[in-house]
Amino acid sequence: MTANPLSGAASPPVVDRQTWLRARDELLAREKAHTREGDAIAAARRRLPMTLVPPVAVQGPGGRTPLVDVFEGRSLLIGYFHMWHDGAPFEGQCEGCTFSTCHMQLLDYLHARDVTYAVFCQGPYPDSAAFARFMGYPFPWYSARDAGPVLVDGRDFGFIACYLRDGDQVYETYWTTGRGVEALMTSYHALDLTMYGRQESWEDSPAGWPRVSGHPWRLDGRPTAQWSRLPRG
Prior knowledge:
The chain is an alpha+beta fold and 233 residues long. The chain has eight helices and ten strands.
């Protein structure tokens, strides 16, 4: 049997169930308030103005692809702008962007709401598309290397942008970066529900709670998602 890596870690005090339920209900009230505030922010997001995107093309499996064609006939587009390190092996590509995008495995629910999800990579198409195949990604993958001045517009890769298509016109409606891209990171949201959370150094956790040593997206010094896909040995 594999040893439990969390064996011996500190844990909360043990109380009777009624005491535990009261504490849980107190936190639930805060969670509900947090949800309502999130709903209010989302409502404000839906009321943002939008800005016209000049005609621009990215590189895809069929070569030069106008941005309007990336929508695949749908009205809405979510684009993740993926960093790229020229010349680095697959396991040397950005762990943060990999962590963001690798969760997007089932697109049916987005498509049902007339939304396309696609990745715009900083790297050249042939090299970066090979990485996408290596990772087993099911979503459309493009290179935005030559489209950067229009699509990136002074921002750094590693952000989400949202678009609306009206005929042949494309408008940018929203963008976010930093922790905003956690919208894609379902593993983080799931870990937040557990007693030990994400186990990262910045979290406010009690003394003795386990912490990830080293890079948060590496396991034993190796990139978590990429390493598991490399040939054994």
